Amino acid sequence: MKSVLHGGQSVTAFPVENAPDRPVLQLAEVMDTYHRSSPWYPQKTGQGQGQWVASLADVAAGFDLILLDSYGVLSRGDGPIPQAHGAMDHLRAIGKPFRIVSNDTTALGSRILPKYVSRGFNFKQGEVVTSLDAVHTFFSGRDDLDSWAMLGAVNSPLPEVTSAMEDLVATDGEVSARVKNILFLIGMEWHISLQKKLEASAQGRQFGVAMGNPDIAAPVHDRLMATPGYYAERFMRTTGQSAAPIVLGKPGNAVFAEALKGYEGIDPARILMVGDTLHTDILGGNAMGFKTLLVESGIFTGQDTAAWIQKTGIVPDFVSPTI
């Protein structure tokens, strides 16, 4: 843990894997939560089980652009997945354009490169897009920012947008009477005690809800840690929210629109989306008309992937053990 300044005071910020009272989820709970969230997502597409391949290298040459998720594809927590460096080197070697498309809301794509450098990836400007880019686009120019509260972080990665919003970490989870909308942005400093206070203070009220990061959980080493989508779904359910949330990250199309900037002329069927999560990467990619590759190195590590594909009805074009 480390101390950071918040409002002139030193506040303890916990690393993602060490945050106190932050839920560690089982895969069945993650999938059940995604299922409850499915009315907010694109419709399911695809048939069968998908073609099983050894790795991304088996299919990459057949596409004009490769889009890749980050957590569960390139890394688990701070540690890179062993095959990831070689896979990215292969894409460079065959001259295949790619972009990382992550639901990470801790930084804009243009500012997140040091995180990847620390993990051994030599990505260049323009090769990483995050759902924070979609958040930035959505809120730019709006005149109602002071009607929003955000589930965020001590040091906001987007102060030009969030500085006018009520900080739910700073209010100890309680949402004030002036707030009409809530942005679920970052979960690293959020935990169940704050969530319960938020839910209690929101009872009997209706809000507009936006999800910057719709992920229910992220693979961190050998655990699945709750992420903002988990808290958003729980909030919607326990407080009886009636309006569907705005989904800015995958599987919504806003983050894909950011990822396709500069590549608008490519036939969607010539784009491959690589991810570890059926309800975000694969469902979102299928809905965009992309081909999709599910890797088993993320939330499905050690699981019966074929059974989950059949149970969810979300079918990738390809499945591989890892990237």
Describe the model:
- The protein is an alpha/beta fold and 323 residues long.
- The chain has two domains: 133 residues, HAD superfamily/HAD-like (Rossmann fold, 3-Layer(aba) Sandwich), CATH 3.40.50; 106 residues, 3-Layer(aba) Sandwich (Rossmann fold).
- The protein is 26% helix and 21% strand.
- It has ten helices and 19 strands.
- The strands form five sheets. The protein has a seven-stranded parallel sheet with strand order 4-19-18-17-5-8-9. Strands 11-10-12-13-16 form a five-stranded parallel sheet.
- It starts with a strand and ends with a strand.
- The N terminus is likely disordered.
What is this structure's SSE topology?
Layout (H helix, E strand, L loop, with lengths): L1 E5 L2 E5 L10 E2 L1 H11 L13 E2 L12 E4 L6 E2 L2 E2 L3 H10 L4 E5 L10 H5 L10 E3 H9 L8 E4 L7 H4 L3 E2 L13 E4 L7 H11 L5 E4 L5 E4 L2 E4 L1 H11 L7 E2 L6 H6 L11 E5 L2 H10 L3 E5 L9 H8 L5 E3 L3
Parallel strand pairs: 4-19, 5-8, 5-17, 8-9, 10-11, 10-12, 12-13, 13-16, 17-18, 18-19
Antiparallel strand pairs: 1-2, 3-15, 6-7, 14-15
Quick summary:
The chain is of the alpha/beta class and 323 residues long. It contains 10 helices and 19 strands. It has helices at residues 27-37, 84-93, 113-117, 131-139, 159-162, 192-202, 228-238, 254-259, 278-287, 305-312; strands at 2-6, 9-13, 24-25, 51-52, 65-68, 75-76, 79-80, 98-102, 128-130, 148-151, 166-167, 181-184, 208-211, 217-220, 223-226, 246-247, 271-275, 291-295, 318-320.
